[in-house]
Amino acid sequence: MNRSQHIFGSGIVFAVGLWVTWISYTQQPAEAFLFPRLIASVFVVLAGWTFGKAVLGLSKVGIGVSRTMFVNLLPGLVVMLIYVFWAAKTMGFYTATAIAFFILLSLYDPAPHAEAKSWIKRAIITGVFVAVMYGLFALLLNVYTPKEILF
Amino acid sequence: MKRLIAGAALALMGLTGAAGADEYPERPIMMMVSYGAGGATDFQARIVTMTSGNEDALGMPIAIINKPGAGGRVGWNWFATQADADGYTLAAYNVPHFIAQSIKGGVQYSTDSFEPIANWGADPAVFVVGADSPFNSMEDVVAYAKENPGKLTVSGAGLFVGHHIAALQIDQASGTKMAYIPTKGGGAAAMKAVIAGEVMGGINNLSDAFRAQEAGNVKILGVADLERSAFLPDVPTMKEQGLDVDNSSVNFRGVMVPKGTPPEVIEKLAATVPEMFANTRVSKKMEAGGSPMHIMTRDEVIEMWAQRQQTLNELLAGL
Amino acid sequence: MEFIYYFGDVFSPLSFLLLLGGTVGGLILGATPGLSPTMAVALLIPFTFQLEAVQGLILLGAAYTSTVAGGAVSAILLKIPGAPANIATTLDGHTMAKQGQGARALQLSFLASAVGGIFGVLLLIFLTPVLAKWALAFGPSHLFWLAILGVTVIGTLDSSSVVKGLLSGCIGLWLATIGFDDIMGAQRFIFHPALGGGINIIAALIGLFAIPQVLTMFAKGRRNVGAEVIEVQRHSILAAVRELFSRTRALSIGTLIGSIIGLIPGVGGQIAGLVAYDQTKKFSSEKDKFGTGHSEGVIAAEAANNAMVGPSLVPLLTLSIPGSPTAAVLLGGLLIHGIFPGSDLFDNHPDVAWTFINSMLIGQVLMCIFGLYVAGLAARVAQVPQSVMAAIVLSLSVFGAYSVQSSMGDVYVMACLGIGMFFLERFGFSAAPLVLGLILGPIAEANFIQGSMIADATDGRGAYFLTGGLNLFLIAVVLASIVYSVWMELRHRRYTTKEEAQA
């Protein structure tokens, strides 16, 4: 895997480490930040070490993210982000899950998109899954989910 | 077509809009407890709400949700800032805990953020020592504290909770300074510290201390309340032992809703909930568990909150 | 031997029905992501209102034993650990399932659970008075050293690079400090309101383990049918029994460590599995196989988890102090019926006490039988096509994280940690040390601060933390663990450089 990716990855971790250290040493009350300071100091040293190794091109562990991988991943990730951070709360858990589930199946299920049969199959799987989730979480466990938009 | 849309919009409004007081409650209600499952507050909350599904109570079940952390701050912060004020989100309050925390600062709530509904219990703080401790009365404890300032270690459930308030009041009344050790893990962890001899004494809930005394693990030296408790008729109050400690540290537990909840809903709850607490099935279970009940109506609770606010302001001003 | 007289009560029709119901229900609840044993038991409390004390406790005891074991199902098949106890099980168990050996992994995990569990309950029956003293012996200073011992394991746990393992651990330790500090009540690193309550450990577990796996499946893209279907191998129960008893080292290390650590109030349940896994790895002759679907890993972790159940109830039953959140919920179940644990329980209600303990013993056996029965069926989950699997795991993660405390904030935290972990894993970081940091951080911190406060009021910090037999013993173990890790690392390094030189 290429060096720039390692520099990027460990760079972010190092940046987080610096930020954590800075906050730990500047925030009050000091007694409450005793432990964070200790952790942050070790954190920043180790992160610096890793970053240094990446810059020198000595990082060996890890396979990185290849271009095809990222292209494959992106649509699923976008659907996931919308589902988790927006749809679940706004549309209700069961509605959002049904929609996200169906979209994800359509994106990643290898069955041909041109056939009606595969679409029906996807819809059935989605329906059965959401029904099971509803039975388990709403009926059996009485989990109190946000209001549904459809029912 | 227009009619259809209007109809649909109307139907949607009917579903999502706030329901009138007549229909309330039309779906199950959630009650947030800001301590973990299994703690005294959680345990009592589950008992007092168990009959809410009955027709003569609310007619809908109440589900308990736990949001523990930082002595209750996490749950109450959530309740003050993020809970829906629609009458379907209730919370359990613990006085003096949340009032003391709001005076101390660093939280997003105060007595003005909440509307009390009713009180169900009052659990006084008691002073406990291990069964083999040389102390046999509060007098012994104070005498030791006077001779060894800052050396008497006393455990309690956290900072600015009832136990801490009681410790501060004992300090003030006796003119000494004890080393108050807050534990993580609530009253149970504080009690363990006493039994294991990690600390010399402890302040704990009457209900838990009563149980530990029955098991032969601790001695209870004094009750921080105005009167002796029916569970412990032989244990004198702090006042009887010459310490000027009132009932400010008594842990009052009850139900509240966020500010902004519709008045009709509050009225309905304030009328029904105290009766729900008075149910004989509830009182039997509470008594069996050693939890003292103390039912108060909304007006009484409002007054109690205001009173506590004042005493705690004075007590904590010096810190 | 008193307990034998009360065996009859367990087999009365209603009691046995409840035991059976509690076991099956517990396995299902335990296998549901986001439902820890504590929550599962709390959910069952209302049902016990209507029952008699003995029957109520049978239901709760059976549910407790089987939820702990049930957590292994989702850990092995979906890589979603249901509770901290199951983290170690995912490390080898899920790899086995991916290789089509899900049935074998599940069978071994249930058998190991039953062996460990029965041993734990027997300890509870025979050694309760001795164990009670041991449970009380651990004060703040000892718990602090114990947490540090856990930290020394971090670097070698599951990472190909020691520095990156330690760094992952540091990230976990830092994440644990987010939120209100428990003792002082100060706010730390709350840069979004969702973090106000800190990072919920169950939500974090779901995110850190399940989400990277979902994203990995996405990253494979649309594949042709057939290319990805794993052949699920059938595995006979007899073979599993034989394998279990040929792995006596893993089984006994797991059982012993689980029972000893389970006793310690406030710590036990969360780290028993991980510590047992790590120790078994250190003593094993096949160290390199750990993490690649090695059966010893599953056996040690699951034996430890269930061995912990019995001893974890010792402080509750003898001293009336709940040593774990689940024990606290069980205490509620006793109090509702007016029974106080402690001497009162064994003197005045021996029928309740012993029937409850016996039911946990029988519960272990029932759990094992039922578990073995479904293992073969459940393993077929691996045959579900990847696209469907990814969507199922994602939805389950969202529901699971939400249902922990009905909070959207936990879902956001779960997703953020999960996405972050996916990319970190690409760069050689791993989730297990991070999670260990997340669990140990608060234990180390709270006990250090509490210990310091006691020490400052009495004989000073040095004397408090560094003297006393138990402190010195724990410090010695910590040092031994560090020395061992360093030595292994150096030896390993010499080997690899040699190989590189030859190549």
From TrEMBL, chain A:
Membrane-spanning segments: 7-25, 37-56, 68-86, 92-111, 123-144
Keyword field: Membrane, Transmembrane, Transmembrane helix
Domain DUF1468: 12-146
Protein name (record): Tripartite tricarboxylate transporter TctB family protein
Organism annotation: Ruegeria spongiae
Lineage start: Bacteria, Pseudomonadati, Pseudomonadota, Alphaproteobacteria, Rhodobacterales
Automatic annotation (TrEMBL), chain B:
InterPro entries per record: BUG, Bug_dom1
A family per Pfam: TctC
Top-rank lineage group of the source organism: Bacteria
Claim: Metal-binding is one of the keywords in the record: no
Keyword Kinase: no
Region forming the signal peptide: 1-21
Assigned keywords, A-Z: Signal
Family: Belongs to the UPF0065 (bug) family.
Protein name: Tripartite tricarboxylate transporter substrate binding protein
UniProtKB/TrEMBL annotation, chain C:
Keywords on record: Membrane, Transmembrane, Transmembrane helix
Matching InterPro entries: DUF112_TM
Ranges that cross the membrane: 16-45, 105-127, 134-155, 189-211, 253-277, 316-340, 352-375, 387-405, 411-441, 462-487
Domain of life: Bacteria
Residues in DUF112 domain copies: 17-436
Signal peptide location: none
Record's protein name: Tripartite tricarboxylate transporter permease
Species assigned in the record: Ruegeria spongiae
Biological classification of the source: Bacteria, Pseudomonadati, Pseudomonadota, Alphaproteobacteria, Rhodobacterales
